[in-house]
Amino acid sequence: MSALLYYRPRALLTPESAVLPGMDVFSNYLRLYHIVSPVDTTDTIRMPVRMKNVFPLPALRPDPSSYEDVCNERARELLARSEKLNIPLYVSYSGGIDSTLTLVSLLKFATASQKKNITVFLSEDSITENPNFYRDHIRGQLSVRSSLLLSQFVGENVIIVNGELNDQVFGSDIIASLINLHGPASMHEPYDPEKIITLFDKSIQQKNISRSLVHTLERVKNASPVPIETNFDILWWFNFALKWQSVYFRSLASVSPKHVHAITQPYLDLHYAPFFATDHFRLWSMNNRDKRIKETWDTYKWPSKEVIYDYNKDVEYRDHKLKNGSLSKIMWRNEAYNFIDDSLHFHTELPLNDYFVPENDFVTR
Q: For the chain, what is the domain count?
């Protein structure tokens, strides 16, 4: 095997791997970012796992598009694709900011016939998280099904849409932990490695490991095409540069075994569409580092919440909705493959020798 595209972190956190070179540090990264395995889209550091980077950073260039412009462009493209292929749009909806914005963007431009072609996959938690939106814009207006069923349709002749990758566009929920530890002002203070080490060490609780981890990840910081000036910037950049690929692939890992052979690159290009998985969103993120958060955690993703408010006029949601880890409520309920290799073959198990890289940058010297 040449390389992996994705793996579940828990598959690597085994007694067998714990003694391998670099795993004392790297395993703590996996626990810190417990749902996502890193792939360095800057191709700067060598991971202990042999990965193929299929989402290299787009070349930075000026772009005057507003965030809403980019959302509108994506929604029109997906609606047009659905109509051209004459297949339905299946939208994963949690009630959180990302999935609500995804649905809002589609509904803004959908014709009456196109709305009949949209099915919303949701749960009781989805309704509870955004009850007003469900009441006013989903119930009795759109087809709905249980979110637990959505993975069964991956590989079929539909377009799967979810709200993945908006966290990478805007930052990371670890910023809430930074605020809790160091106060809201710490977000916009000049980047202080000691503050990030202390933040990581709240989870790791081994200061030497936390320090080594931050020291290694700073090489990714130095590869950024945009200035990394604040504590918020560094946490956004780690999320943006290291998690993009795994967040794209992680929902695919729950594909039903009967459909696993249908997952090819042409299939992904047409049928799998995380809403924010475009280079235009990545360019917006790099060009608009001042538009991700203001002074408090409840303003995180405020451009997203403004677009939602313009559609549904829900002041409470705009002003007080917080980031909520909605996806994990669905992901951990479904069986999933542990590995996806660069031929798009799915594996429950793989020998360590197939993917482990002993000469990696997490080995302490």
A: 1
